[in-house]
Structures are given as C-alpha cells and as structure tokens.
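User: For my dataset I need records formatted as: sequence, then structure tokens, nothing else. Please produce one.
Assistant:
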Amino acid sequence: MSEYISFVKQIEDSIKGNWYNDALSDYKGMSLKYSDVARRIAKLHILFESCGVRTGDKIAICGKNQANWGVAFLAAMTYGAVPVPILHEFTAASVHHIVNHSESRILFAGDLVWRALNKEEMPAVEAFIGVSDFRLLAARNESVVNCREHLNELFGRKYPKDFTADDLHYFHETDGDQLAVINYTSGTSGFSKGVMLPYRSLNGNLSFAKRVHPGINSEANVVSMLPLAHMYGMMFEFLYEMNMGAHVHFLTRLPSPKMIMEAFAAIKPDIIIAVPMIIEKIYKSKLFPLLTKPAMKLLLSIPVIDARVETRIKEELESYFGGRFKEVIIGGAAFNKETDEFFHRIKFRYTIGYGMTECGPIVTYAAWDKSKPGSCGKVVDELEVRIDSSDPMNVPGEILLKGQNVMLGYYRNEEQTAEAFTSDGWLKTGDMGIIDSDGYIFIKGRCKSMLLGPSGQNIYPEEIESALNSMPCIAESLVIEEGGKLTALIFPNAEQFEGTDVKVDEYMKTVVEQVNSSLPNYSRIENFRIMDKEFEKTPKRSIKRFLYQK
C-alpha cells in the first residue's frame, strides 16, 4: 500500500515554492503574492486559537468571490478545521440554518451578507469576521476582541525576526478519509444536504487535474468566475491552481458576458472553467447574429469555402476567450445541443465534463480533441461507473459510481446518506444516462424529472429545453407536466424584442411550433407560458425544477 500524500502538505509546499509569485488577485483590485497569503493565514491562525478552535471544528465562509475568501478557506483548512463554504446569494434564514446545522464556530461574512444576518440566530458562533478585510464584526468572548485588536503585535511576538517560508508548519491530514469540507447543496432547511467530502476526494480531483492539464504552473493565469462556494469553482478555479503555483484572478461581481470577455482579453487565461449559461450567452450575443446572416449561410454551404470560413469563426471565438487557453471545460448543467454541435464542427478547443458535489466534483471528462458531441466524456480514473439498466448502451438507467472521489455522506443526516447509496455501496447520482462501446457517457436527464409519455415512453424535459434554448429569442426554459400534457415555461431574451412591435406571445407560438416539428409526437409541447423573471437557480446555476413542477 502506497504512503498517503497529504493534500494540505501539497498546498504548503506550493506556497513555500512560489513565495514571491502572484497568487490571488481581485480583478481591478488588490493582489496578493503567495507570501502575503501565508502571512494572512498565520494571523488568522492566531485568531482561531483565541477562539478555542480545535482540529475538526467547522468554520463557515459566506461572501462573494475575492482574494480574502481564498485566504479564509486556506486558513481554516491549514489549521485543521473544516471549511463550510456558503453561497452568498442564499437568504439570511438559509445562512442561519447552515451555520447552525454545520455547528460552525466561526463565520466569515461578506459586507452585504452580514447586514442581513442576525447573530442571535447563530448562538454557537464564537466570532463573526468580515471577509473583505478580516475585521471583527462581533464576538462572544472578550479575549477574541483583545486578540483582534492586538493581532499585529501578537504576530510580531510569534515571529520576532521575520516571517519566512520556513515558518510554515501547517496541519497535515494523515488519513484520506478525514473530513476536509462540508458543502451544502441548497440553503433551505427542507432541501439542504451538507455533503461531507474527505481529503481523498480532494486528492482524487487534484490528481485528475494534474494528469489532464499538467501545463498549469507558476506562469499560468486563471479567471475565477464560478462561485467558490460550489465545488466546481472551488476545486478547479482555486484549489488546483493554488496547488500548482498559478495566479488566480477573481471576478468579484456577478459576471456578465461583457465583463467576462473584458477580463479574458486582459488576463489571457491558460484554462477556462465555465458553466453552459456563460458560454451560450457569448455564443448568442457574438456568433449567432453573424451565423444567421444570409451571406454567411451561403458561404457555409459552399464546400470549397466553408472550411476557411469556419477557421475564421473559430479564431474569432478564441479571441473572445483571450486566445491563450489550452481548453474550455464546460460543466455544471446541460449544454445546448446546437451550440455543442457547432463548436465541435469548427474544432473549437472545448469539452463538456460531468460532476456532482458528492464527488468533489469530477466524474467524467474527455480532452477536447477526443470528445464526442452530446457526451460528457468518460469516467475518470479515480472512479468506477455502472449504468443501472438491462441494456446500458441503449436503454437509459441511473448512473452509479464508486471510488476515491465519492463523499463520506451527508452531515448529520443518516437517512439521506443511506438513500444516496445502493445496498452494495454504489453512489446514486440521480442522473439517467447510457454508455457507448468506447465508454463515453450520454446523460438523458434527471431521474426525478423524467416524465412518462402516453404509451409509457420516457420523456426527458432537459432534451426539449435544449431545443427551446437554442432559439435566440429564448433566454431559458423549463418543461413541466400539467394535466398529463407538457407545458413549456419560457423566459424570453429581452434583447431580441427591444425596439420592435413584436408581440412576444404570438412570436413564441411560432417558435414552439418550430421546436415541436423536430420532436417525437409523444414529447411535443402542448402549452406554454411566458415568465416575467428568471428561474430560481441552485449554486451551480441549474434551475430549481422542484419549485415549478406542480
């Protein structure tokens, strides 16, 4: 049996080895070198000690993406505590619930988050600390107040000569099954589950990333635009980069396509991690208007010319992403079929992966030049996959998993933990899929969202929604069942109707008819309704389907 390699030890070695390099930056804001990160971690450790934090205690972090969020997370982990990241968009009641349920001793809170919170609703928390500047917002112990007031003095006493890389002596886990992170999948008390991820899961994700993208190193730049409170962004836009000595640039505001492209142009990231919504918005706003012009359609239909035109389109698209990236990895939700097929056709350097919080998150992946349209790749080396179907290559079944990346269970929830696994120990993903002869996985939809057609046919709403969302006039959609019929809830793309006299309802009727013409009879849309606002989303920007299904 090989000796266990500590995840925290690898972080420590990276900080020491990249001491003078840039580490974490707020886009158009402050920047920290690896030595600065270490210094801030050391000061927070002194503060943790004054709070009586011990190995295994929980430390919650709730704030928007920023450099100090990363410092707070690393400070908790390197102290031996268990970070509990919380999405800052959650309601105050949800934050209160998660902090209490996780039994957190300290809460790092963003400025806007803190204004909405009530510390009396979180009686077990010893100290409330601001994420943006680490000021003490409130404390229940006078010694903590004194410690924060004299923190620089205490730091000077602890390191009287100088603070150097040799002073780093972090907690190192010695067992891969030791709890590393608790990540909540939702904020509402009736739905939230605290996923307990062990260090072996983080190491599994890290070993995967090192294997497929070894070129991410101390000279690499990465733009972090996904929520750090979600495992996808945390693992592949922050923890992996910190382990490799790269420079992470945080977009500290909700990223719009314009802001993202501006940041890409300035930073020129070496790898891009994204969710479908971001890529599809860039495609619809930049490429779709060009591709639908009559002259462009004609050029793309002439075999002698179309290859050159496609090359030019690919170069233009690559420039939107900074031009330097090795690959765009898309995950977190279903990708639009039309966009997927077009990107594949022009040989754009992108791939679609699949993951879940319960695997920290990676499950499947294939490099961009080995990917297949419609597939999310092959299961990674750290996992085994099984399709719960009598004919896995043709009949969809639930995707089941085993291996290094799999969670320990749900925190303080034995019932849901038991429900998450089969009797023989396979993790139930809740996703339906098939696997081809080459091992590529094709996801058909969620088990719970699958509907039955009039003659018992399996209907996957996600496939219909993909067809709807390919229309430029539709921003997003959701297909539900009402009275035995399929109804499409449609949120229009307002930009398509600005400055026109078009009646949205009448126009959408023709669009739905067009989509129906491409669908089997049993899965055609019978009714539709126009939504006046965006659908409510999960941390990974998936629609909260359960809120809309009657």
